[in-house]
Amino acid sequence: MIRVRQIKVEVDKDNETYLKEKIIKKLKINNNDLISYEINKKSIDARNKREIYYVYEIDVILKNEEKVKKDKDIFKVEKEEYIYPKVGNELLTNRPVVVGSGPSGLFCAYLLSELGYNPIVIERGEKIEDRIKTVNEFWEKGILNQNSNVCFGEGGAGTFSDGKLNTLVNDEQHRIEKIFDVFIHCGAPKEIKYLNKPHIGTDILRKVIVNLRNKIIKNGGEFRYNTTLTDIVVENNKINKIIINNKEELNCEVLLLAIGHSARDTIKMLYNHKMDMTSKPFAVGVRIQHKQEMINNSQYGKFSKLLPNASYKLTYKASNGRGVYTFCMCPGGFVVNSSCEKDHLIINGMSNYERNEENANSAVVVTVGPSDFGNSPLDGLEFQRELENRAGYLGKGEIPTQLYKDYKNNMVSKEFKSVNPLFKGKYTFANLNELFPDFINESLKEGIEAFDKKIKGFASDDAILSGVESRTSSAVRINRNELYESSINGIYPIGEGAGYSGGITTSAIDGLKVAEKIIEKYKSLN
User: Fold this and answer.
1) Neighbours of 70 (CB within 10 A)
2) How far apart are CA 26 and CA 177, in angstroms?
3) Are 283 and 447 in contact (CB under 8 A)?
4) What is the pTM of this model?
């Protein structure tokens, strides 16, 4: 198979016939020499707004590959595929228990179930069908279920997001290939395999999760919803049992912790059992809404009508040394109330697959670290909680919101202007300056003004700010050794909540990596 890079197609000529012509021309072959081709990567080159291209990387099958002259853009490749780990020799007395059904937990359970380990997945929230109803009721009526919400429940926090799958991970073991194949088999669009910034969208992701769950069950796995890990029983520094819902005991020798970044009660319980963990930096800030049309025009100029809704990723170093950056940008989406604790308020962004709503939104966040909140492993969690408590107080249970002009002028807004708000959950006007310490407010304002130099209109007076965006990543890392085992034998921290990933794809990769270690150590149960 030959891989061909740097095939540029003008966005107004992007069709299968023209692409095929470009491939033939690049390879300098005849039409009948090309047996088949498959897109490996597709991205947009918008550096020059007068000439915007789709850039393709194509895998081709030819009648005679040896006749084609090779160079840095034309070279031979072997089929890339995931290699399953070799099964170990130690005996398992009990089924492995996976705590949490976000991407790291689901893909850990999927691989274990594929190879006959019959995992039990416990999830404090509801299955996705019931969770959707509960979340919608919260957005409409403000009735919060603290165990099943935007942060907790089957699918994890990413279920009510944009379903972004892009990652910069160097993937020599082709785990991403495995993950995307599973997603596609469960109903995700095939284009996620080759788009530079793939996404599934919250609407399709919800269906994918149901299909993934059913595959795990068919392979011998089991799901238990409304089931919270409330304690562990440790003997001779090894996990022996777990306590669920404060009453039921379950024998356990392999416990896989895919708890997510919001399970603070679980982290505190583990800390009380002397599990080794450290505080880590993260970022906090606001979410900003603009008209998507403005973002498109800034990013694509005259070609904006021909291209999908544009995204962006912006970074800046403030004069006080703080990093300011945009995070989890959602084209054509909503700002959503993601609260999971009474009297505390947090927000996130969410888009459907089509990304066809009027507004773009993104988090604009400022880096914080132990020097801001203390070196104890739990100090960062308390820093987050304090901000979330202030946000809940400022908004009286609704999303506190302010126009950017009024945020700069330290005054409460009275009405929206050119940008119509798109929220899931109720909102109210408030002064976000009262939410943050001065260094965060100063950094946010400086950063937003700097971003306006890259995207004209980013710092417009009418842009809508809301707070608080505080769950950008875990505030804690649960330390593990080279076998991915924690300081308590038999317990394996996984994914974003343990501090080892950020986002759906990297979390799923981490789930596979930890499952591989279990498989390499133990015999399967089947």
Assistant:
1) 11
2) 27
3) no
4) 0.96
Tokens describing residue 379: 């100090």
CATH code of the domain covering residue 237: 3.50.50.60
Residues 149 and 194 in one domain: yes
Residue 200 belongs to a domain: yes
484-503, pLDDT tens digit by residue? 999 999 999 999 999 999 99
Q: Examine the domain organization and report whether 177 and 242 are in the same domain.
A: yes
d(CA 296, CA 169) in angstroms, rounded, equals 28
DSSP state of 63: S
Kindly report the backbone phi and psi dihedral angles of residue 241, in degrees, each rounded to the nearest multiple of 5, phi listed first. Answer: -150, 160
In a domain, 262, yes or no: yes
Query: In 3D, which of 404, 412, 505 has the Cα closest to residue 197?
Result: 505
Note the Cα 101 to chain centre separation in Å.
Answer: 14
Q: Mapped to the 3 state alphabet, what secondary structure does 473-508 carry?
A: CCCEEECCCCCCCCCCECEEECCCCCCCCCCHHHHH
Domain coverage including residue 325: 281-469
Amino acid at residue number 380? G
Place of tokens 């009474």: 342
Exposure of 211 by Cβ count < 10 A (0-12 exposed, 13-18 middle, 19+ buried)?
middle
- The helix-helix angle for 175-185 and 103-114 (nearest 10°) equals 90
Give yes or no: residues 256 and 300 share one domain. no
- Alpha-helical regions (H) of 219-345: 264-272, 292-300
Tell me the average pLDDT of the chain. Answer: 97
Contact 175, 512 (CB under 8 A): yes
Cα Dmax for the chain: 72
- φ, ψ at 198 (rounded to 5°): -70, 150
Q: Which helix (H) or strand (E) holds 521?
A: helix 504-521
292-296, Cβ contacts within 8 angstroms, sequence gap of 24 or more: 292/331, 292/332, 292/357, 292/358, 292/359, 292/360, 294/360, 294/457, 294/460, 295/331, 295/360, 295/455
**Which pLDDT tens digit goes with each residue over 244-302?**
999 999 999 999 999 999 999 999 999 999 999 999 999 999 999 999 999 999 999 99
Task: Evaluate whether residue 526 is within a structural domain.
Answer: no
- 503 and 449 in a common domain: no
Starting at the edge strand found earlier in the chain, the sheet holding 53-62 runs 34-45, 53-62, 2-10, 74-76
**Same domain for 233 and 290?**
no
Name the token pair of 148.
């099943």
Same domain (yes/no): 491, 348:
no
What is the side-by-side order of every strand in the sheet holding 347-350?
A: 347-350, 334-337, 423-424
Instruction: Write down the residue that tokens 């960062």 correspond to.
Output: 380
Distance set, CA 221 to CA 118, 142, 389 (Å): 5, 35, 39
Q: Give the 3-state secondary structure of residue 331.
A: coil
Residues 236 and 291 in one domain: no
